[in-house]
Specification:
The protein is of the alpha+beta class and about 100 residues long. Helices cover about 20% and strands about 25% of the residues. β2 (about 10-15) and β3 form a beta hairpin.
Length: about 100
């Protein structure tokens, strides 16, 4: 289910949610992982963070949420297109993994 879209990014519900609210925010520009982002991508990176904030607000996550970017195999990345996970709807635990 798409919950947000603009000319730079799209956000939709994760098909395998790990929290009551689990939404992915993905840039439309193809960037495989965060470590591949370049200095010229700084505006897009900021846009993704502000989009995540907007989507979290729209999802009603007023008590907080966790924002996660998995990068590379040791970071748990399994889909090689940069994306941000918004996780919320319950108390998050620490350490996460």
């Amino acid at each position: 289910d798409i919950v947000y879209e603009d000319n730079l990014a799209i956000a939709f519900k994760d098909v395998n949610p790990q929290a009551p609210v689990h939404i992915l925010v993905i840039p439309k520009q193809p960037i495989a992982q965060l470590s591949d982002a370049e200095s010229q991508d700084h505006a897009l990176m900021g846009h993704l963070l502000l989009t995540a904030k907007r989507v979290a607000e729209q999802a009603g996550l007023t008590n907080g949420y966790r924002l996660v970017i998995n990068t590379g195999p040791d970071g748990g990345q399994t889909v090689y297109h940069l994306h941000l996970h918004i996780l919320g709807g319950r108390q998050m635990q620490w350490p996460p993994g």
